Amino acid sequence: MKKINFFTQDVPSPIENGDSVINCFTEIIKREDHKADEVIFIFCSDNYLLDLNIKYLSHDYFTDVISFDYSENNVISGDIFISVDRIRENAEKFNVTFQNELLRVMIHGLLHLFGYNDKTPAQKAAMTAKEDEYLKLLNV
What we know:
about 140 residues; Collagenase (Catalytic Domain); globular
């Protein structure tokens, strides 16, 4: 079984070149000095993710990603839910390709499993710099 898996909830799979993405994410995990137990990316609609956001985080708003972190020590494990609707909208808003925005948000979710946060402007800037660094590995 692969340590990184992709599933869909109520949308078609948005992943292109899945094996290549898995290989790059495996490299990112090594570069962050972690190991992977199991990381699952679940692609879904805005409404599905909104329901999770309300139920588990008490946030009544749309978001692009929610990470459920089950990591222990330097072994990462988690479920990362991503709204394909939000990715599509944000790609247009930021004038980037859908795949670029999708991969950025996937990396963002992965960074949360490493312990990165984005609550303050400084933390957000650090995460964005890491996202940019790792997007280069994916050639986007």
